[in-house]
Specification:
33% of the residues lie in helices and 29% in strands. By secondary structure, it is of the alpha+beta class. It has one domain. The mean pLDDT is 86. The structure holds zinc ion. The site of zinc ion has 7 residues, from loops. Zinc ion binds next to loops.
Length: 70
């Protein structure tokens, strides 16, 4: 996740991009990490529903690696 630091307000922001319309927006990293855990639906500025899948790409890769080892 690309991030940027807004030192004036002391919040680290993470980059999101809507899978529907391509809108790029920034959200607080702490909020984004919580969505990584709870997979709750949220919305891009144009109102498209977004969620973070239960298994991240990293999780899926780990599973594939474990399958290769087995
Ligand atoms: Zn959108």
């Amino acid at each position: 996740m690309q991030t940027m630091q807004i030192t004036e307000i002391g919040i680290e922001l993470g980059r999101c991009q809507c899978s529907e319309c391509g809108m790029v927006y920034y959200v607080p990293v702490s909020w984004r990490k919580q969505r990584n855990k709870d997979h709750a639906t949220f919305y891009c500025p144009n109102g498209h529903g977004q969620y973070i899948p239960a298994k991240s790409d990293a999780d899926l890769l780990k599973e594939q690696l474990n399958n290769v080892k087995a």
